[in-house]
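R.M. (postdoc): so does anyone remember the format we settled on? I'll just put the structure tokens first.
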């Protein structure tokens, strides 16, 4: 029987996929960029080129939007029943399950994350998301409304919930296929058509997904996938006058650019942006769970999660114990190429990201922070940086205020629930938060006062398709998952008839 540390045998479909330059999906066809240009995607564990991909830009986005518009207005998709849309989504989920290993290998090679994470975490979450939304297609309904106009019995009024139209979706590199599924599944369930731009660092699984979308039988033009750079392809999509809605996940900085670009035609906008999430450990918590939970809160996915528990607040009486415990957890990590099943921590995604994280480590050192563990990049090929716990920090430091998006946590002691609440909310962000305590009243009182879209109690990073997800403050606009995401991709029409 294969053990979990048996070397990964790359599937022949993976080597074949990587061998030839990948094209983009427009109107059901795999095409080269109009410019003929391609760009390289890298393996972050070596820094070497992994694959070449068509480099979409404004003119390709134009063609993709035209294809999406045609499919939305008059293609087969416009007439398909809700149940049939559900069947297509379910079929796609089955195809994803049938190709779990192949997709997991591609994801790990392109992004760097450990293969077990791709196999057991990311890819199953992708098919789950498509199945969740397969169940929504025939439950997206309006209602009948009793009017109070004169002669109310002479009126029949109702609402219709209709697809918003052509949707542009721009996604990041930290959970490439998961982010594609969070965007595509509700849009397709709602009856929209889509132009998706994956991140330049990780375009491969989205392109493989495009092949499975065609295999599942989605009509041509319903999903178009245009890899390319943010400043060209992404910006063109956000500004496009014939796109009805733009959905974006990524940095707060780019989120602002998207919101501005969308103003010309006032397309609908939803944004899932950065975070600097507080993770609060009280002395009365079950520390056997809180310590590994707090380590996982920051170090999962090499710290490259928008929800990462990057500000750890620990009640004074247990501060040393918790910090030592979290530092001890990092000794269980084996940093190495994600494709080696013995590694449980991979590289960060890119050279830029490595430099960014190391820049923050330098800034922390300059400001007087001390690394209890970690603090350096590894002297080896690829983009490896040690999991790092910083103490002796204060709320003014850049490492405490800004999103590092790497395996770096800052730890601060606190006295009382009131103190920690003001620390926790002292941020421009408001994506996630967590509280570890055995006192349920304290937990729920804090949950009500934390300014964050998600509060986890005695757990961290638990996601589910039914749990709305999104940010307060500068962490975004709107909520994804469940019916909240259907609302993002639909318009409500009131129909009022005098009868
Ligand atoms: P980013 O620049 O915000 O990239 C996210 C997506 O937006 C990518 O597809 C990107 O394309 C695209 N994009 C970039 N500039 C654009 C523009 N002007 N118009 C339209 N689309 C544009 O994020 P990043 O540079 O990859 O990472 C930087 C930081 O963002 C991270 O360190 C982290 O703080 C944050 N981040 C947050 C999340 C999250 O889930 N909240 C995810 C990733 C990153 P390209 O890939 O071609 O640039
Ligand atoms: Mg890559």
């Amino acid at each position: 029987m294969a053990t979990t540390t048996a070397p990964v045998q790359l599937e022949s479909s993976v080597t074949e996929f990587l061998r030839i330059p990948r094209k983009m999906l427009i109107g059901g066809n795999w095409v080269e960029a109009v410019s003929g240009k391609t760009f390289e995607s890298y393996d972050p564990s070596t820094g070497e080129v992994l694959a070449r991909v068509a480099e979409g830009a404004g003119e390709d986005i134009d063609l993709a939007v035209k294809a999406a518009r045609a499919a939305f207005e008059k293609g087969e998709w416009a007439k398909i029943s809700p149940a049939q849309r559900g069947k297509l989504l379910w079929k796609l989920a089955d195809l994803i399950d049938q190709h779990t290993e192949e997709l997991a290998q591609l994801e790990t090679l392109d992004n760097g994350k450990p293969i077990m994470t791709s196999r057991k975490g990311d890819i199953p979450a992708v098919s789950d998301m498509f199945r969740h939304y397969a169940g929504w297609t025939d439950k997206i309904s309006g209602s009948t409304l009793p009017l109070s106009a004169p002669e109310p019995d002479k009126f029949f009024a109702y609402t219709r919930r209709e697809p918003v139209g052509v949707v542009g979706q721009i996604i990041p590199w930290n959970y490439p296929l998961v982010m594609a599924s969070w965007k595509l599944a509700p849009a397709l369930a709602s009856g929209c058509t889509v132009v998706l731009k994956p991140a330049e660092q990780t375009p491969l699984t989205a392109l493989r997904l495009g092949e499975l979308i065609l295999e599942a039988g989605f009509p041509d033009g319903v999903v178009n996938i245009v890899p390319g750079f943010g400043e060209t392809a992404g910006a063109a999509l956000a500004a496009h006058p014939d796109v009805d809605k733009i959905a974006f996940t990524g940095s707060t900085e780019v989120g602002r650019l998207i919101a501005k670009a969308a103003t010309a035609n006032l397309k609908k906008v939803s944004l899932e942006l950065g975070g600097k999430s507080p993770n609060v450990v009280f002395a009365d918590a079950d520390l056997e769970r809180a310590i590994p939970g707090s380590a996982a809160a920051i170090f999962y996915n090499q710290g490259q999660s928008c929800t990462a528990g990057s500000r750890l607040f620990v009640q004074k009486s247990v501060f040393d114990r918790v910090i030592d415990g979290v530092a001890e957890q990092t000794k269980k990590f084996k940093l190495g190429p994600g494709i080696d099943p013995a590694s449980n921590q991979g590289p960060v995604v890119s050279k830029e990201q490595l430099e960014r994280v190391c820049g923050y480590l330098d800034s922390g050192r300059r400001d007087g922070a001390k690394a209890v563990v970690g603090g350096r990049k590894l002297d080896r090929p690829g983009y490896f940086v040690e999991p790092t716990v910083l103490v002796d920090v204060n709320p003014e430091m850049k490492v405490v205020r800004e999103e590092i998006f790497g395996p770096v946590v800052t730890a601060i002691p606190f006295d009382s629930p009131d103190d920690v609440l003001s620390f926790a909310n002292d941020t421009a962000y408001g994506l996630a938060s967590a509280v570890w305590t055995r006192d349920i009243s304290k937990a729920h009182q804090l949950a009500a006062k934390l300014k964050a879209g998600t509060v986890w109690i005695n757990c961290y990073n638990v996601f589910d398709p039914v749990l709305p997800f999104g940010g307060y403050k500068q962490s975004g606009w709107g909520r994804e998952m469940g019916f909240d995401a259907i609302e993002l991709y639909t318009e409500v029409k009131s129909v009022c008839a005098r009868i």
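R.M.: ...and that's the designed sequence above, right after the tokens. Also worth knowing: DSSP finds 16 helices and 20 strands in the chain. Residues 170-174, 197, 199-201, 229-231, 234-235, 238, 249-251, 254, 257-258, 272-274, 306, 356, 403, 405 surround NAP (ligand 1) (CB under 6 Å).
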